[in-house]
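Researcher: I'm preparing a figure for a lab meeting and need a structural model of a single chain. I don't have an experimental structure, so a prediction will have to do for now. The sequence is pasted below. Please return the structure as tokens so I can convert it later.
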Amino acid sequence: MTISYLWLALYDGRFVPDQRCWESLVGRLLVCYTSRSMRVTEIYHETTDDNDSGTAQAFSRYARFYDAEEKRNKIARWTRAQNLKYLHATFRPNELILEIGCGTGTEAISLAKSGVRLVATDAAPGMIRHLQGKVSVYEDDAVGTHITALVLPAAHIDKLNDQYGRAGFDGAYSSFGPLNCEPDLAAAANALGGLVRPGGKLVISLLGRYCLWETAWYLLHGQPRQAFRRWDGRAEATVRGAWQDERVHVFYWSAAQVERAFAADFSLLRQSALPWVLPPQYLSGILDRRPRLFRLLAAIEARTASDWPGNVIGDHIRFTFVRKR
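Model: Understood. Here is the structure written out token by token.
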């Protein structure tokens, strides 16, 4: 994602997601329009669940803060850079790739610059509009022509079969937790199995169920409830600390549960933490004035992120699958 991510921070004892997640919504196509050379299809949603519509609205409002908050966060910048490097190594120019939870488009734009063609989806119209605005400033129209942006929640990506056909994508990715707000991960996996061609790569990063840093930090600070909040597999979060009236549900799975959810159509190639030696993004401040310590931890991270136990106890866990033939 390019900004397709959700990380759940605890700020003053509150759950604060700095990345996005989307509950299932029932979508219908309302309007298609083109801005400059960028193709933007907006799929708005009707739902009887106020929490569902509120989630997309809250993250639409959050879009204008997202890039600036990531820029100020040292850990967020580092994890984004690491993930982008990995995505560039995974996907090739001219491949058609699906992004779930694109946010403001950081990763989609970066990949488009290298020639990758993308269908970038997000449940929040505000995020898609922000992506459109970012693309419009590029003089190189190739960036825009390589990105098709859709307002579409993860629960309904199967609708893409109508336009792109079965196995119409060369690969897919979802960065930093949009799928953590899908209560039925297996349903999303099944939809992706129908969209990605045999041999295509799928890269997803999810908030881990067991985060060593988080558990240790809050135990040391006498807050056991926060320390073990992920362990039950579900928690509530606010989009920003100041927006306490807008809450979303977040789901956590163990690495074994994730592998089982995708096992019908995908084989696991690699599993790595993002990060586990470095702290979660909401604790970035403890390293802001310790550059040497940051470099040391980052170096250890680079050598150990794919090894056990780091690859099961990180803040996020990145899974790389290949579509079975």
